[in-house]
Each structure stands twice: as C-alpha cells, then as structure tokens.
Amino acid sequence: MTKVWGTHTVKFGGFTQTTDNFQSTFATYQDGNLTIRAGQAPNILTNATMGSPHNPDANFIMGIMTGYGENNASPIGDTAYMETSGFVDDTGRRLAA
Fold first, then answer.
1. What is the largest CA-CA distance in the chain?
2. Could you tell me if 34 and 60 are in contact, meaning their C-beta atoms sit under 8 angstroms apart?
3. How would you write the pLDDT of the chain (97 residues) with one tens digit per residue?
C-alpha cells in the first residue's frame, strides 16, 4: 500500500507463505547397503575361501563384500515451515525554493 503525507511517500506491505516438503529419509538404505571389511568369505559357487584377511581395500578392489542389506520401507518425513515478512519504505522529497 502507498500513503502520501505532505512531502513523504510511505509504502508498506507484507508477505506470508507456508511450505511443505515431503521427502524420504535417506538413512534407511532403501537402495541397499554394502559392507566391505577385512576377512575371508567362501565363494558361493566354488566354496573356495576368498578375500584378504587383513586388508579391506583389497577386498573392495576385488569386489568381495562381507554383507548386504536393504529395507523394504522408507518413512516419509514432512518438513513444513511458515515464512512471514514485511516492509516499510519512507521516501521524502524536498520542495524547490
């Protein structure tokens, strides 16, 4: 809104907004969770022992994992907030003499 008082022009207004954000919690391992540690595990096809007993980096490079898991549900989190703001602007002008 605008109001003129003598040599002043005053403008003021406000804004409000409510925002909802429905999103998954990404900590639930919905896409799966691989575990690669040091240790040896049997091959499921040949039953031969595979892997480095003390080096998890070597097991990672060779693609030897020690565990896998995933969840079948992922809760949805609702993050909501309200934003409100306002402003006032006063512009004064000088009269010419």
1. 102
2. no
3. 888 888 889 999 999 999 887 776 665 666 677 777 777 777 777 888 887 888 888 888 888 877 777 777 666 777 788 999 999 998 887 766 6
0.70 surpassed by pTM: no
What is the strand order of the sheet 8-24 is part of?
Answer: 2-5, 8-24, 76-92
Q: Give the CA distances from residue 1 to residues 9, 65, 77, 91, in Å, rounded to whole numbers and listed in that order.
A: 10, 66, 39, 14
Strands in the chain per DSSP E: 2-5, 8-24, 33-35, 41-42, 49-50, 67-69, 76-92
- The residues spanned by each domain of the chain are 19-82
3-state SS track over 24-48: ECHHHCCCCEEECCCCCEECCCCCC
The helix (run of H) or strand (run of E) holding residue 60 is helix 56-62
